[in-house]
Amino acid sequence: MKTPELEEATKSRKNFFGFSRNILFTGVTSFLTDTSVKMVYSVMPMFLMSIGASKTSLALIEGIAESTASLVKAISGFWSDKIGRNKPFMLIGYGLSALIFPLYTFVITPMQVLYLRFVERFGKGIRTAPRDSLIAGSVTNGETGRSFGLQKAMDNSGAIAGPLAAFALLSLLPGDYRLIFLLAGIPAILALFVIIFGIKEAGKSKHELFVKFHFRDFPAKYYFFLGIVFVFTLGNSTDALLMVKANEAGIRVAFIPLVYLITNMVSVFTAIPLGALSDRIGKERLLIAGYLIYSVVYYGFGVTTDVGSIVFLFALYGLYSASTDGIQKAFVSDMIDNNKKGTGLGIYNAILGVTLLPASLLAGYMYDRINSSVPFYFGAGMAFISAIMMLFFFRNNGKKEVMRRIL
Q1: What is the dihedral of CA 381, 387, 388, 389, to 10 degrees?
Q2: What are phi and psi of 314, to 5 degrees?
Q3: Predicted local distance difference test score (pLDDT) of residue 9
Q4: d(CA 382, CA 376)
């Protein structure tokens, strides 16, 4: 006999444009919120430097904001598994972002930006793992790569709309960053209504709940993959430095959002096809390719100051994003049981956040104290090492799978 929760979950799995209801409306939520995020983020480096921030402090703000709230991702993921609910965490997390964006209008020091960034990223920490768990629990036909590909595509659609809006406002009112911050709250507020009226719980019965954490509850390959993610993220510092490099190469401040827009356009058009491809040929292969693309992009940022080359590298960066970000989450989701997905994805997201602090600090220090090329060479090297580790993971795991089928 079906419980009301399971009946609601069945309804949520009805297809909309080939995706379940929850996956589609979670994507819409991400689109609206990311529009707000990227309106702010695409101009924040220039705004910070206009109020006296150095490149090191810029990287520090980004690193602390992401990392200090990152442990929340693991806690919220476990908590959502424990109570079998995801929607309340999404409402609180997205609600905090909607509250914070307009408050940037009133800041006058870099330290105030840090405080607000921390609270806003804290909200992201609350919502991320439960949201990813909701997606994983709403997948049909085992298409995790395609489903997380839609999430990535919708994220980056917002990351197109946001910089476009920022560019239009900066073109009409040069240097008026505060108006951008004020208007950025509107899409984020609309996202809350989508969560309330569009998303349903992916329902779990009581015997499926994950009530106590043990390390042995997760397979060894999961921890090995987290090690690969850690190595890669050490060289994956804040994108703010890419925008600073583009500005130093000769791209005017008003056009920086448009350059970043190119990255997101490429990612939007390739995320779903690459996600579907990963479901067919294996996510390991796509991740190896993504790490290698990242290595090429960062090496390119290190060696060139040509504007045309910079624009091309931003486009290639979008291909890396589409072949890595969502597919990593789908890969983690495939490795763990249904009742542990929130916890497993939360730990994964926490690893990303915690590692970003030393990665951003190191990159900012190298940019300021050595030269602008060194942090990009370092990132390229770490990505190449990660690709080699992933190749080893793929071969080792493939042999075990063959032996399992034989036995």
Answers
A1: 110
A2: -65, -35
A3: 46
A4: 10
The one-letter amino acid code at 375 reads P
Residue 42 and residue 254: Cα distance in Å, rounded? 10
**What is the DSSP track for 274-302?**
HHHHHHHH-HHHHHHHHHHHHHHHHHHHH
pTM of the model: 0.75
Q: Which residue has the higher pLDDT, 23 or 240?
A: 23
Residue type (1 letter), 327? I
- The listed range with the strongest mean pLDDT (167-176, 223-232, 330-339) is 223-232
Burial of residue 257 (number of CB atoms within 10 Å: 0-12, 13-18, 19+): buried
Q: Read off the tokens for 293.
A: 């693309």
What are the φ and ψ backbone dihedral angles of 26, each rounded to 5 degrees? -65, -40
CB 130 within 8 A of CB 80: yes
pLDDT of residue 362: 86
Phi, psi of 251 (to 5 degrees): -85, 125
Query: Which residue has 């809006």 as its token pair?
Result: 165
Residue 292 has pLDDT above 70, yes or no: yes
Class of domain 20-202+216-406: mainly alpha
> Does residue 89 contact residue 130 with C-beta atoms inside 8 Å?
yes
pLDDT in tens, 338-359: 777 778 888 888 888 778 778 8
Q: CA-CA distance, 253 to 246, in Å (whole number)?
A: 9
Q: Where are the domains of the chain?
A: 20-202+216-406
